[in-house]
């Protein structure tokens, strides 16, 4: 079987078991890179544990494609997860007799601890905006605590300005939740929709400059541009905004169960990583 056909079958499998769009896109591309590296893409049944070892060693020195440097530890974890998932699928569908990944001990790299933005830095981000689209973008990931994929998928009809509610219709694990929005968030959403958002057939809430739904990587670039404009020197991304609102809500004294529901965590263990915070007040951004 050609590698491309195998990769397509693997992608369909990921869709069937309910993985989100970013995972469905990323994992097959990582596996294709692995198959090309081993030169055994046409005969994956010939792959052995040593091939996996050589590939994981290669990732330590593999240069990045779009900028200087090498892969982050977090990205190496993604490759390891992709390989485990791929070979479990291959074995369970009788495409291979034994799983070569089962004999390999993958190194689990600890994620770099995220330092949440302070409330002062969040205010600087909002002050750096000069349009309601960028304000709305910040609100999605900070004020509403959305995940990146949730923000990308959000449509105009997912926001009820009259009831001050935002509906996440397909969160992680295909779960839905409802998020209340404050008066300031409602105002900024309203002005974005009524004054700035171009008339288009696109249902996506946040539009790019071409009038189409903005991709996640572009959303990340926008908030990083705002960060530079605001004079914020530390590294952060869209997910740092979600991390920051969780931290700030707990600082305000909200119960951890509320924050769990707000973020859409399936278990409270995921929320507990934000509990080491100091008491402070939370402003209505």
What does this structure look like?
The chain has 285 residues and is mainly α. It has 2 domains: 3-103, Tyrosine recombinase, N-terminal domain (DNA polymerase, domain 1); 119-274, Intergrase catalytic core (hpI Integrase, Chain A, Orthogonal Bundle), CATH 1.10.443.10. 51% of the residues lie in helices and 4% in strands. The chain contains 12 helices and 3 strands, in the order H-H-H-H-H-H-H-E-E-E-H-H-H-H-H. It has helices at residues 3-16, 21-38, 49-59, 73-92, 119-127, 132-143, 148-153, 183-196, 216-230, 238-252, 256-263, 268-271; strands spanning 159-160, 165-168, 177-180. It has a 3-stranded antiparallel sheet with strand order 1-2-3, with no helix packed on it. Helix 1 (3-16) runs antiparallel to helix 2 and helix 6 runs antiparallel to helix 8. Mean pLDDT is 85; it is low at 277-285.
